[in-house]
Task: inverse folding
């Protein structure tokens, strides 16, 4: 019931985004908007799904992949590649292939690093949160350092790749992103019932006969792919996932991922599309969508932290 | 029959379970007793593959558990741990239904629902079905978790201090339930107990552990001697039989003397 309502709301906002105020040259505007919409939908999907899956396997509802520096990791890989190859080869390279290369490195490296970080004998949430935050800062600092010492020409190319935002989605990556997201979702959807069990914690999951380490590895793989895609398309977004995941838990009213995951995706789509729509039509681009969303997401984060402390 | 062969668990320098070889036969209630830090819970974790051993092996009905697929093992052996704390909010029937996961992988069949209802009825908590687990009292919650483990329908049931945080009434009810499960449902119950009077009242066999090793092991009457228990816990104890019940008095000198 709730899902149908959310789906209707999502398609409503999609329609409004596409059609309202199209103007004279409607075919041109429609094409432009469709592209932007596709980007927003992909990002909404990737962030919502990755956050919910990540929170399930880490058995917490405060940490998200981006709080632990997953997206900083992606940017570092991008920077290192630019640094290593130089801008000539980088700009000549097919952007899709470059994207796949970056995603591949990201998935391989992050699965092993985060498995180490999350798989300790005693999974202490505070340890993971602190280590993850520090790790994120470290990655960002290394990226910054490399960007300082890089050749200005190479930096310009890199900057072009990194300066993505909700307004300026990288259109050339939309197709390949959709394919990657589709594959990751297929895996994720097939393990939706395993995710229900994973949420009960390591010991319970094992005693119920789940192959725990394999499931966590697969889930982390899905999360890394999704984060790579969203970071490549619109750049790092820290608190958005937290916001939509929490709304989804509230709205779904069940532990079953078969409901939570679609709910989170719909909520994320509604938020992004409606947000972008209002931004363009009402505020005439005076502010940026990520600022608004991060503001509310950050408030939710603070609320959760303080509520847990008491 | 569950057997351990030279089972050892080390955390860095500390040896928690030290070269333990012990057999737990099929049927009845076996209690594991001993002072704090004796390695009782770790032994249970090792047997139920929640903790990988440093060395040694565990066999169940002759097969090494390391070679049994986890999914299959979940139909042979279930474990109820001490702290069951979830970040998810679940209703009682949802949680108990998780006990059917090894069979249905999340697709609940009518047969699974029957098992859930039977387990709830067996523990007398059918009325709590729609309640949320986090809103229940400690005693109710313990019975819900027991129902989940019963639902798993395994021959072997391992329980880590199932009486923890229960008042005496619920502790007594729980122990009687376990006894009944052993007698009526033909389960093999292995439980870590702190209250040796409960162990005396309901177990067939007792394993005493101390400093990671087996201190004593055998039938209840053989292990529950003044000598053995006093040495195991390093304190004065006297054993009396009163109305066919073995009562262990470890409370020290009486005020009435």
Result:
């Amino acid at each position: 019931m709730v899902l149908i309502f959310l789906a209707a709301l999502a398609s409503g906002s999609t329609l409004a985004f596409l059609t309202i105020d199209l103007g004279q040259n409607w075919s041109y505007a429609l094409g432009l908007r469709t592209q932007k919409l596709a980007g927003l939908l992909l990002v909404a999907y990737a962030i919502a799904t990755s956050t919910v899956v990540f929170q399930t396997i880490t058995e917490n509802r405060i940490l998200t992949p981006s709080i632990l520096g997953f997206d900083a990791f992606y940017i570092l890989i991008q920077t290192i590649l630019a640094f290593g190859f130089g801008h000539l080869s980088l700009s000549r390279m097919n952007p899709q292939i470059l994207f796949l290369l970056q995603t591949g490195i990201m998935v391989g490296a992050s699965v092993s690093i985060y498995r180490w970080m999350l798989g300790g004998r005693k999974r202490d949430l505070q340890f993971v949160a602190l280590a993850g935050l520090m790790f994120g800062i470290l990655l960002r600092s290394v990226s910054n350092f490399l960007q300082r010492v890089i050749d200005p020409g190479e930096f310009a190319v890199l900057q072009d790749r990194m300066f993505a935002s909700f307004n300026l989605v990288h259109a050339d990556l939309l197709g390949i992103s959709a394919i990657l997201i589709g594959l990751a979702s297929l895996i994720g959807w097939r393990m939706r019932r395993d995710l229900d069990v994973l949420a009960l914690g390591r010991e319970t999951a094992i005693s119920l006969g789940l192959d725990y380490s394999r499931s966590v590895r697969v889930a982390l793989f899905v999360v890394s792919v999704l984060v790579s895609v969203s970071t490549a398309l619109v750049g790092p977004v820290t608190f958005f996932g937290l916001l939509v995941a929490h709304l989804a838990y509230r709205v779904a009213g069940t532990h079953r991922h078969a409901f939570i995951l679609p709910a989170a995706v719909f909520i994320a789509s509604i938020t992004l599309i409606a947000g972008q729509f209002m931004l363009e039509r009402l505020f005439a681009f005076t502010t940026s969508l990520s600022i608004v969303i991060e503001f509310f997401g950050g408030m939710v984060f603070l609320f959760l932290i303080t509520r847990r402390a008491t | 029959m569950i057997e351990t062969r030279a089972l050892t668990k080390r955390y860095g320098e500390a040896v928690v379970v030290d070269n333990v070889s012990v057999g737990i036969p099929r049927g009845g209630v076996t209690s594991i007793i001993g002072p704090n830090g004796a390695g009782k819970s770790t032994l249970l974790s090792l047997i139920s593959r929640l903790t990988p051993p440093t060395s040694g092996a565990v066999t169940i009905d002759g097969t090494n558990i390391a070679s049994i697929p986890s999914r299959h093992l979940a139909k042979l052996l279930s474990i109820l741990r001490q702290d069951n704390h979830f970040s998810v909010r679940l209703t009682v029937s949802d949680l108990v239904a998780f006990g059917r996961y090894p069979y249905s992988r999340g697709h609940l069949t009518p047969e699974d629902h029957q098992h859930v209802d039977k387990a709830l009825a067996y523990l007398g908590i059918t009325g709590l079905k729609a309640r949320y687990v986090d809103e229940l009292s400690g005693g109710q919650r313990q019975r819900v978790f027991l129902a989940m483990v019963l639902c798993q329908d395994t021959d072997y049931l391992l329980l880590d201090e199932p009486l923890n945080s229960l008042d005496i009434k619920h502790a007594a009810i729980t122990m009687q339930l376990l006894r009944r499960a052993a007698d009526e449902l033909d389960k093999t119950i292995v439980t870590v107990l702190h209250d040796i009077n409960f162990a005396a009242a309901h177990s067939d066999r007792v394993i005493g552990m101390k400093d990671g090793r087996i201190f004593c092991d055998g039938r209840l009457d053989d292990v529950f001697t003044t000598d053995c228990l006093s040495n195991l816990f390093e304190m004065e104890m006297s054993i009396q039989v009163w109305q066919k019940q073995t009562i262990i008095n470890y409370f020290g000198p009486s005020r009435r003397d």
In short: Chain A has a mean pLDDT of 79. Chain A has 13 helices and no strands. The two ends of chain A are 34 Å apart (CA to CA).
